[in-house]
Amino acid sequence: MRRLLFIAVIVALIVVGVLFGSINQQLADLHLLIINVQLRVVDIALLFLLLGLVLGLLISLLYSLQRKAKGWLRKSADHS
């Protein structure tokens, strides 16, 4: 039941985000190191949100692998 409620809240937030995103069509300039792009404000927010999500997942994956690797090294040192 808790999982179903969590999924319903996430879907509701996505629907509200899509509705607000479809209303706001204002363009903004995004100046990067190499290029200059003109995108909607919603697209820029989505781009940075996804970039943060990917970076967070990569950092947590690396941290998790580092913790597991320490356990593997300890086990191999105990056997020899």
From TrEMBL:
Transmembrane segments: 45-65
Upper classification of the organism: Bacteria, Pseudomonadati, Pseudomonadota, Gammaproteobacteria, Chromatiales
Keywords, comma-separated and alphabetical: Membrane, Transmembrane, Transmembrane helix
Protein name: DUF1049 domain-containing protein
